[in-house]
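hey m, so remember when u said the tokens were messed up on ur end? i reran from scratch. heres the input so u can diff it against urs
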Amino acid sequence: MASEACLGLSPRQRSAAGMSRTSSDRRERAVQNSSHFAEPENKDDPMTDNASGGPSTRSLDPRSLSDEDILQAMKQISGYLDITPGDFRQIYGVAYSHASKRLLSTPASEIMTRQVHFVREDQPVLEIADLMARTEVAGVPVLDREDRVVGVISEKDFMRRMSGTDQTFMGLVASCMSSKGCPALTIKGQTAKDIMSAPAVTVGPDTPIRKIFSLMREKTINRVPVTEEDRLAGLISRDDVLGALASFPVDFSPEGEE
């Protein structure tokens, strides 16, 4: 069965080896707090809902403000404002830019899940499937005997190995219904090493959100292990990124880096 304590690690690193909280509460919070974040499932670009390559920024983007918006805001501020609507727009734009850069610089260590389910590379896939089902996680890091992160197993890895192609969930359902056998039986005797995606795509504790987002989009993945000296320190999922940014639609466009 999967280990729930990482032997041979520092106290901080061992904290990454226990039971992880599920992502459903984080996903629900992100959706409730920010309706402009889309959460497509198993898409080519799992975190994008606009042409700029990031979560939509239309609602609070300074460029979307009208003169009427600015005038109404100025009227609601008590006291005398010795600025023009143009000054107001400029101040808001600069403040927005600073806030965006600050949030996008948030390091992985501040948003990662520290208690993470993991499996060993020689662990049977039946045990892995049972662990993922019981704990309601969609992916787990794979560790070798030296506790180094060597791969990641997700639901997509199971579907791909069962079908031999990049199968979707509904495609697999259709295949099951049209055949006489269960495709899962074809990998029943295999181990984590046989089906995992390797080498693992990882980030360090100091990696900023902007780079994590870009990495997930580039590699078409929904989670990345956080490692210190190749040892598991935590895990960041798409929901962790969305939860961290849900209260403020940061600017992921190239202009946002300036």
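this time it looks ok to me. Strands lie at 119-120, 139-143, 149-154, 223-228, 231-237. if urs says something different then somethings off w ur setup not the seq
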